[in-house]
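pasting for ref. prot 1 ->
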Amino acid sequence: MSNPTAYRFSFGPWNISEGGDPFGPEVRSAFPHEAKFALYRPLGFEGVQFHDDDVVPGLDDLSPEAMLTKAGEVKAMLANQGLIPEFVAPRLWFDPRTVDGGYTSNSAADREYAWDRTRKCIDIARAIDCKAIVLWLAREGTYFREAKDARLAYQRLLETLNAMLDYAPDIEIWIEPKPNEPTDLAYVPTIGHAVALAYASKDPSRVKGLIESAHALLAGLDPSDEMAFALAHDKLGSVHLNDQNGLKYDQDKNFGAANLRAAFNQVRVLEEGGYGSRGEFIGLDVKAVRTQTGSPVTAHLTNSREIFLRLVEKYRSMDHALVVALRESRDYEALELYIIKHLLGD
């Protein structure tokens, strides 16, 4: 375990929520968006995840000059706080023109809007010195399988990737898979689909994936296996660590809160794959529970970070020679008992 990775952490400003959820009114007062930047470093975070309209609110109604001026102001705020923009993602799913998806919409006009918004997102990323664009393909799917030509939809997604690669030769694209919600069934539900698109693109080295723990669980998959698959192809751009209690709505629970052993295995795979050694962030996408009082509420972020680091300690303090020996002898019962006892502190 020589030269172990010293991890860097990130989160998005949406993770300091105002206390709302899809099932009722807000229960906490709003916390000013730009004031959130001052919280990052004291909480142990240096990376900021962005949607394009987190950087430039109302960007569709602004001129290109005004948009870039606002982005420049945010760049200065980040510099003042010693923060690094990890990625910028086009928030396509909020606009009425993307109710049928953006890139895969049956409407040519809506597809053109999605591409225009994507170009703006890339321009914003460049303006704040960010080199990664995340595509969460939220509505790129259907509620009814017959509603779209799925083969054509995948062709359109690939065309979009290639157009982005042409538009910005200096950026990477990270695809964030999710199997459902808000669409019934999405077109890129797993990291395998994302990696296939990457290899089909005109520059596979610049197309990677972002794996969220809960999204893998919603697909009935193990997040650690999804991460291992991406790492095997050198295509893990980032992670969004959280947890999920079963195949329900996307819960964004604290990392390790629902299944500590599954969380340990995610840490194990990241450690074994050398993730973070090139500066990759440990991203969190966790939400405060509705019942929590106060403003701002940040314990869910610091708790998840602490759990991750404690599990890193658990991995690094394992008897790795014993694990290898038990694997070679195929004594998996003994291996499982050792892992559980180690997690319990024995």
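and prot 2 ->
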Amino acid sequence: MLVTFIVLYLLASIAIGLYAATRVHNTADYAVAGRSLPLAVVIATTFATWFGSETVLGVSARFVDGGLGAVVEDPFGASMCLVLVGLFFAYRLYQKNLITLGDYYRQRFGRAVEVLCSAIIIFSYLGWVAAQITALGLVFNLLTQGGMSITAGMVLGTVVVLVYTLYGGMWSVALTDFVQMIVIALGLIAIAWFAADLAGGAGKVIDYAAREGKFQFFPQDGGMKEWSFFIASAITMMLGSIPQQDVFQRVMSSNSASTARTGPVIGGVLYLLFAFIPMFVVTSAVLIMPETAQALLKDDPQKVLPTLVMERMPLALQIAFFGALLSAIMSTASATLLAPSTTFVENILRNLRPDMSDAMTLKAMRVAVLVFTGCVLTYAITMQGTSIYEMVSGAYQVPLVGAFVPLVFGLYWKRATTQGALMAVALGLGVWLLFVASASLSEAFPQQLAGLLAALVGMVAGSLLPQFVPDHKGHVHHYEGSAEA
């Protein structure tokens, strides 16, 4: 019965996505939904895109193991990312009427920076989408009680998401996200209510978490090393997610600058509030089934929440949970398949084939979605065994050290130059790779923070030193009107 309901839900999601595909007539419709989404849909799609497998399975597992301090990256950093996008980036970028974030880098710094930053953005999606595909495989494996292998579940889930994303693009993503947000919210609230009753009341769950030190957020000893790693974790998604195409697409899909600014802020706040629900339910599980929970925490903490639902909750709540979980995963997966594919076509392929018509570009975007999906599925199968949380958090370090500084300084510093942007990318990635390759360096100081600081030095020094690299207008002196406010 549970599997039947889930199959019907998957078919309904595909139907909604294919219906939305009837609105796609050109690349603007496919990439940014014709810049016509109202506030309610923008809120839903920012929330649903962020609320993925790592929120339900990964964050909850890390919280019950290490407390709030272990989840500073997500949901705290992730939710702040959306708030910062709404407050400081959405209005300025929306006014430029762009298709991709790579278009901004081209306008501000030229084609070299466009291609470099676009490649960084595309590469960063590999781990994030792979995490969603891994979660789909885990869900179908649990639903069938082992009848379907995790690998087969990955393939099935990927095909479902691919069908409506391939045809409908941003229109399909937005409408399915809107429905999926409702399913996520109602499903998780119902499960949390029932779990609290099973555990003896919400107060008992909160008291247990407090006694176990789960509410400890900041580093306890306050040493320099501990604080540097804490800050690095916080900014990985908080800042590293800002130069991301999926966030940018939601901004550009809005029907007005006001919607573009308000939607991500409200979506970010809702994301943080709802992210606490899986943490609460997993903590309840430790009280409800202590022996089973402790065994799963040692084996695979990501299975605690689904095991509680499958073993202790009625069929209606099982349907609600897996519907919510699949909604969370599919909404994130669809967005993260579309974003790198549109970036590749718009900012890399069109540089190689500048004579492409709009119809050819639209076809190329769909082919890119198909190819990228195949690559990510292969990567996800290869990376089985890696935690969902680690796959997601690792994905954001690359745009943090490579693409964040050029975006911020390009928008807010008039004297930022192409040479500065290139030096920021080179130094940021170079220092980050050096720390990644050296165990002693990465243990002494966080690699992503080292890369970000190096990128800042590169941008400032490269912009203030004599200019040897022409900007996007062919000037070698940035004082001649080549920089934008």
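The first helix runs from residue 2 to 21.
Residues 413-485 form one domain.
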